[in-house]
Design brief:
The structure holds two protein chains of two kinds. By secondary structure, chain A is of the alpha+beta class. Among the domains of chain A are: about 45 residues, Uridine Diphospho-n-acetylenolpyruvylglucosamine Reductase, domain 2 (2-Layer Sandwich), CATH 3.30.43; about 100 residues, CO dehydrogenase flavoprotein, C-terminal domain (Enolase-like, domain 1), CATH 3.30.390. Helix content of chain A is about 30%, strand content about 20%. In chain A, α5 runs antiparallel to α8 and α11 packs across α12. Chain B is an alpha+beta fold. Chain B is built from five helices and six strands; from the N terminus they run βββαβββαααα. The chains are: A alpha+beta, B alpha+beta. Chains A and B meet through β1, α2 and α6 of A and β1, β5, α3 and α4 of B.
């Protein structure tokens, strides 16, 4: 680990000032990803700004319009087992419990989950070229080992994926990310928070210099999917592994007909993958395998595999169909009993 | 247990050592730590509490699990300087008067280890699992223990030991084997 300065911030403004003043500074909260990356010398911050004492970043509260605000410091465990989340946004609770371990979920925070880095083997190994870690050095995953890499939205510069489960749920629910920076507060729709790599894979998200995540707001209209939802995660072992492919879906139904659909994919792109066309195609359709397959094909249109991950295109297609079936039947995937119904 | 409520209102800044106050296994300690020291290294290296083990040092194996303010946490991924004001329990703190914690006794009864290296982390994790009260079947015990790896493969006996304590406490009905 490199030598760094430690700054314990007492207010949001204090943290923002310190971050804006030093582009090499990093915010630390749960530390589960950042400390790990510092041990590998992947991250070498000049200063760690400890935000864990800032009261304004804590707690879950109701919004005036019937949504739910989750403070950036709220641990993953607290969100997953919160009664309001479990009853109104069970898709989010399920996505969180599909990821990591109890120990990591106890430490990892809501804001930190958004800002975790890719688990691409080459990003995590400073002995290899990586455009995300060292812009311009090349991509070792293209032509290298790429089983866990992207099949959608990648570029010639980077085929890394965003590793989060929670973010796939948040993307499907259409959450808002509230951030505060030197110019005050702004709201970033979840779909615009993470970005595709294009020619700047070193940038995971659209935060500007000095901005920090202060809360996530779950919209009231996403609370209507209490029954028809599912988070289906496929991986190389049944617990504590990152997704090869995951699907978060929530439906509103009238009898056997879908009124509206939300679908987001994890493990396949540089950000949670959502496409309006796929969701629109399900509206007004019978909840049957034909409709699900049409939506899956639209969602995966243009998917491109590499040497070791081409299987993910068909895996994702089948996972979408299966998850939509689970959601339509009101039988969401269990995160304890991993058998896929 | 709260060590001190009046945390420094203003920022500590710098690369120098920082003084922190923690409640460690029920005892109040004032310690000087450098910002880059992990809690795991503080425990093992500076305080000679070697019950907590370093396995992977990357949050993947669970051997370093301790209980911080009631939550099981990988101590290898926590910076010591950030623990100011917290109550920390390590494996050494589970039997302060020499009497084994019921889960420690159950591990012996069920022979829930072979080499023993992962055992302190397994037990701290299991103690927290029991306190959480969320595991209500063997299957759920397994899922809730997924953060602790045992390379000797003592998993069935580890689940037996945790199940025994949950049954003793009325949190679980004994599952019958057909």
């Amino acid at each position: 680990m490199n030598r760094f300065s430690y700054h314990r911030a007492d207010t949001i403004d204090d943290a923002v000032r310190a971050l804006a003043a030093d582009p090499a500074a990093k915010i630390i909260a749960g530390g589960t990803n950042l400390v790990d990356l510092m041990k590998y010398d992947v991250e070498k911050p000049s200063t760690l700004i400890d935000v864990t004492r800032i009261e304004a970043l804590k707690g879950i509260s109701e919004t005036e319009d019937g949504g739910l605000r989750i403070g950036a410091l709220v641990p993953n465990t607290t969100v997953a087992y919160d009664e309001r989340v479990a009853s109104r946004y069970p898709l989010l609770a399920s996505a969180i419990l599909a990821g990591a371990t109890p120990q990591l979920r106890n430490a990892a925070t809501t804001g930190g989950n958004l800002n975790q880095r890719t688990r691409c083997y080459y990003f995590n190994d400073v002995a290899t070229p990586c455009n995300k870690r060292e812009p311009g050095s090349g991509c070792s995953a293209i032509g290298g080992l790429n089983r866990i890499h992207a099949i959608l939205g990648a570029s010639e510069h980077c085929i890394a994926t965003h590793p989060s489960d929670m973010c796939v749920g948040l993307a499907a629910l259409g959450a808002d990310v509230h951030v505060v920076g030197p110019d005050g507060e702004r709201v970033i729709p979840f779909a615009d928070y993470h970005r595709l790599p294009r020619d700047a894979p070193q940038r995971d998200n659209t935060l500007r210099l000095g901005e920090i995540v202060v809360s996530i707001v779950l919209p009231p209209d996403a609370a209507s999917h209490g029954v028809h939802h599912s988070y289906l995660k496929l991986r190389d072992r049944l617990s504590y592994a990152f997704a090869l492919v995951s699907v978060a879906t929530a439906l509103t139904m009238e009898g056997g007909t879908i009124s509206s659909a939300r679908i987001a994919l994890g493990g396949v792109a540089h950000k949670p993958w959502r496409r309006q066309e796929a969701e629109t195609a399900l509206a007004g359709r019978a909840a049957d395998e034909h409709s699900f397959a049409v939506a899956a094909d639209l969602l995966l249109d243009g998917a491109q595999g590499h040497e070791h991950n081409a299987f993910k295109v068909e895996l994702a297609r089948r996972a979408v169909i299966r998850a939509l079936g689970q959601a339509a039947a009101g039988t969401p995937q269990s995160q304890t009993d991993k058998r896929i119904a | 247990m709260s060590v001190h409520r009046d945390l420094p209102a203003r920022a500590i800044v710098g690369t120098q050592t920082v003084t922190i106050a923690i409640a460690l296994n029920g005892e109040r300690r004032s310690l000087k730590v450098s910002p880059a020291t992990t809690l795991l290294d503080l425990l093992r290296h500076d305080l000679a509490l070697t019950g907590t083990k370093k396995g992977c040092d990357h949050g993947q194996c669970g051997a370093c699990t301790v209980i911080i303010d009631g939550q099981r946490i990988n101590s290898c991924l926590q910076l010591a300087v950030m623990q100011d004001g917290k109550a920390i329990t390590t494996i050494e703190g589970l039997s302060p008067d020499g009497a084994l914690h019921p889960l420690q006794a159950a591990f012996i009864e069920r022979d829930a280890f072979q080499c023993g290296y992962c055992t302190p982390g397994q037990i701290c994790s299991g103690v927290a699992l029991i306190a959480e009260g969320r595991a209500t079947s063997r299957e759920e015990i397994r899922e809730h223990m997924s953060g602790n790896i045992c390379r000797c493969g003592a998993y069935p006996n580890i689940v037996d030991a945790i199940e025994d304590v949950l049954v003793q406490r009325g949190q679980l009905m004994k599952e019958t084997v057909e």
